[in-house]
Write a structure and sequence with these properties.
148 residues, globular, three-stranded antiparallel sheet, six-stranded antiparallel sheet, mainly beta
Length: 148
């Protein structure tokens, strides 16, 4: 499948646990590199960084709803940026001390896939947070399509 996993067949919110072999079979090379190996796509290269359509952004690994277009903003960084997840517990965070930096990693709380990072330089009039997310970590469903 192009950049996304097959539907896991599990209820939304239930933890998804798969072997690396299963992830490898379900994700294309780029999605696997980013979601499972904590990679990053080059800035301004992902298909969703400048998407302005209304809809819902879900995890490309398991389909869990993560972000609404209502919380998306143009950060100028070249990655999709959001000031908050669709639900408080949709995105988990962990300390990331890779690349000689200290950052906060954003993960899908349902399947543990790497999404990107969270920074404290988002819009001050909202949360002040910037969830900087890889396009390959997301599936977009346009509002009004498929029951939205």
């Amino acid at each position: 499948m192009s950049g996304s996993a097959k539907d896991s067949g599990k209820e939304s919110g239930k933890k998804v646990q798969k072997s690396e072999e299963e992830w490898r079979e379900e994700l294309d090379d780029e999605a696997y590199r980013i979601l499972r190996k904590k990679g990053t796509e080059p800035a301004f290269s992902g298909k969703l960084w400048d998407n302005k359509e209304e809809g819902l952004y879900s995890c490309a690994g398991c389909g869990e709803p993560l972000f609404s277009s209502d919380c998306k903003f143009d950060s100028g960084t070249g990655w999709p940026s959001f000031d908050a997840p669709v639900q408080e517990n949709a995105v988990a965070t962990e300390d990331d001390r890779s690349l000689m930096m200290h950052r906060t990693e954003a993960l899908c709380s349902r399947c543990g896939s790497h999404l990107g990072h969270v920074f404290h330089d988002g819009p001050p009039q909202t949360t002040g947070l910037r969830y900087c997310i890889n396009s390959a970590s997301l599936k977009f469903k346009k509002a009004g399509v498929g029951g939205e």
